[in-house]
Amino acid sequence: MGIFDKDRDSDKEKSVRINAVSPFEVTDTLSTIADVVSRTNDVTYDVWNRLRGWGDGFATLLEGVPTGGVVRRENALVAKGIPPVDAYEECRKREGLAVWDQNGWWHCLFPRAQVKDSVLLAKEDVEADTDHRYGVFFRNIDDLLSWKATMRANTRGHWETTFSGDDGSDDGDIVSRVHSSWSKTLPNGDIERQVTEKVRKRDGSKVVTERHEIIAPDGTIKESSETSK
């Protein structure tokens, strides 16, 4: 989980890969962490929990943390949004790494010397992870929000382009056309999105097309499938 560096060439090319705890609107930053973690495609659920220092029920615990509240773990302090002053001061005294994940959760990761369990994520692990194997943390809110805005623009532009072209249908035969979609950011920063198009024709027939894609942060389509019925 490397630290976001907006000046790093590889980050510019990728628009930065994210993998922490989840995408498009700022209001999504407090969405369910457990849902994101359970869909990790880089490491297993159990290993992910160990890396993050999450035990059974920890994701559920975070959901109930009020703004200003702090969860204390062996390897870190975790707070929703802006941390309390006392938590920030404790982080400084312990020489921790203060960062936000892409869900808006603040983390103070303690130095390795203060973390007994070698499997748990520590400050040095994040600082050394320049390849973003597990994703990215942000040192400030501006970088986090800029990244989220870029991701939203990239994805919106891709799908507007996808459905703006000629689909080969005779428009004169179409009575109605309805689109619906859902999307989410995967733990590795890719976007999973499904768009459903329902077309009704004058003869009463209906065609439902579902398009499912995995899109990299830079807009590259990594996987694509389409079904019609």
Share of residues in helices = 25-40%
Structural class: alpha+beta
Q: How many structural domains are formed by the residues?
A: 2
Q: Within the largest sheet, what's the order of strands? A: 2-3-5-4
Description:
The protein is α+β, with helices and mostly antiparallel strands. It has two domains: 2-154, no CATH class; 168-228. It has seven helices and ten strands. It has a four-stranded antiparallel beta sheet, covered by helices on one side. A hairpin with a 3-residue loop joins β2 (70-72) and β3. The protein is elongated. Mean pLDDT is 69; it is low at 9-61 and 162-168. InterPro entries: Mpm1 (IPR035187).
Characterize this entry briefly.
The protein has helices at residues 9-14, 33-37, 45-52, 58-63, 85-93, 123-128, 141-162; strands at 2-3, 70-72, 76-80, 97-100, 105-109, 136-137, 174-185, 191-201, 206-215, 221-228. With 229 residues, the chain is α+β, with helices and mostly antiparallel strands.
What's the structural blueprint in terms of helices and strands?
Elements: E1 2-3, H1 9-14, H2 33-37, H3 45-52, H4 58-63, E2 70-72, E3 76-80, H5 85-93, E4 97-100, E5 105-109, H6 123-128, E6 136-137, H7 141-162, E7 174-185, E8 191-201, E9 206-215, E10 221-228
List keywords for this structure.
10 strands, 2 domains, elongated, 229 residues, 27% helix, four-stranded antiparallel β-sheet
